Amino acid sequence: MDRRSFIKTAGIGSAGAAAASTLGAPAIAQARTPMVIVSSWPRDLPGLGTGAQRLAVRIEELTDGAIATEYYAAGERVGAFDVFDAVSSGNAQAYHSTDYYWKGVHPAWSYITTVPFGLNYVEQNAFIHWMGGQELWDELGEQYDIKGFLAGNNGVQMGGWFNKEVNGPDDFRGLRMRIPGIGGDMMANMGVSIVTLSGGQIFENLISGAIDATEFIGPWNDFFLNLHQAARYYYWPGVHEPGAAMSLGVNKSWLTALPAWQQAAIEAACHEENDRMTAEFNANNGLYLSRLVNDHGVQLRRFNPEIYDAFGAAAEQTFDEIRQHSDLANRMHEAFLHARREVGGWMNIADVAYLQERNRVLGLE
Fold first, then answer.
1. Could you give the CA distance from residue 72 to residue 64 in angstroms, rounded to a whole number?
2. 3-29 burial, b if ≥16 CB within 10 A, otherwise e?
3. In terms of Cα–Cα distance, which of 96, 227, 100 is closest to 159?
4. Measuring CA to CA, which residue among 205, 151, 154 is closest to residue 178?
5. 3-state secondary structure of 200
6. Which site from 82, 125, 230, 327 is most exposed, i.e. has the minimal number of CB atoms within 10 Å?
7. pLDDT band at 30 (very low <50, low <70, confident <90, very high)
8. Which whole number is the average pLDDT over 260-284?
């Protein structure tokens, strides 16, 4: 698909192009600056892959071509988990990924993406933009010459795919499960054997029996990875990733050398994609859940309270380990707790209470 066709299919209309032309006017007299963007997603994977590709197109649009983006999906230039090093070293200008993949570098990266019993999309935006999250992110990124921007979110995830039913905490012991981030550490504290795999490797490992269970995202993405052909039981609600944020991590030395208006255009494109991707996931997940259940016989199962209580205990054990890592990790966790308490408390009075009553009245419970 050529770039012009992709713009049309991505829903970028003439109004957006006109706005881009206005913002990008200063670029007419300037040379084109290449921007290599590497990602952790398979090419054209709905939501993640297409969203990252759309962001690359939008950056070029908003700068009227002054920044010439070159997008590479996972494995096309570097591996899915190698994008951080590529950008930190300056071998690429930006990555689109989830920052919890770098928790082995520093555990504070996990809070930029998501943690168990963490923040949903609305809460995460408040945390990053208005409650000190961006400042802590900048402090963390400074050590690796990376400036990060929120650039997408896939919302509350499903609990995962399992080859057998799990009826209590003991059923998790010995399971081989693909699950990244702090959610993986939580599961390890429940006796799960954690396996690290990129999205493109999950199906083959699940269907071969190399793993017993996996999480990925939700019905829309999971459908296109054919996970329903490899496992029977689909559990909810997910606890490990209640609002996984995507990041555009940009090499800071490269970024700050750009004219200020081009830096602003990159940030604006990220703001757009952060909103657009979440809306797209919400528009598609319900449809594809129905298809999985009605057309493919997927068995939905809900984690029971005993399992959720065990998740809570394992998550707290994991958080204690993180806080002991460093002062920055502890400050990141404290800021996260403040956001969860303040924003979550308000949402309980507003959003949660309203949805409960709306669904009760309309019979949607």
1. 21
2. eeebbeebebeeebeeebeebbeebee
3. 227
4. 205
5. helix
6. 327
7. low
8. 98
Contact present, 94 and 37 (Cβ < 8 Å): yes
Residue 136 has pLDDT above 80, yes or no: yes
Q: How far is CA 4 from CA 37, 44, 238, in A?
A: 18, 15, 37
DSSP designation for 160: E
State how far the alpha carbon of 311 is from the alpha carbons of 128, 143, 299, 329, in Å.
25, 32, 22, 21
Encoded tokens for 87: 């950008």
Q: Which of the four pLDDT bands, split at 50, 70 and 90, describes residue 6?
A: very low
Q: Cβ of 158: how many Cβ atoms within 10 Å?
A: 23
Summarize the confidence of residues 8-31 as an average pLDDT.
44
Strand partners, 161: 214, 234
The pLDDT confidence band at residue 305, using thresholds 50, 70 and 90, is very high
Whether 361 shows a pLDDT value over 80: the answer reads yes
In the chain, DSSP finds a helix count (H) and a strand count (E) of 15, 11
Please state, in angstroms and rounded to a whole number, the distance separating the CA atoms of residues 81 and 85. 9
Q: In what order do the strands lie in the sheet with 146-153?
A: 67-72, 33-39, 94-97, 245-251, 146-153
Q: What is the pLDDT of residue 300?
A: 97
Which residue matches tokens 């919400």? 282
Task: Tell which wins on pLDDT, 14 or 118.
Answer: 118
Residue 94, beta-bridge partner list: 37, 250
Alpha-carbon distance 151 to 77, whole Å?
21
Average pLDDT over residues 163-190: 96
How far, in Å, CA of 198 to CA of 59, rounded?
26
Residue type, 77: R
Instruction: Indicate the domain borders of the chain.
Output: 3-154+242-283
Residue 227 to residues 120, 204, 209, 233, 288: CA-CA distances in angstroms?
24, 9, 13, 10, 12
Q: Can you tell me whether residue 316 is helix, strand or coil? A: helix
Report the percentage of the chain scoring pLDDT > 70. 92
Task: Out of 3.40.190.170, 3.55.50.30, 3.30.420.40, 3.40.50.720, select the CATH number for domain 3-154+242-283.
Answer: 3.40.190.170
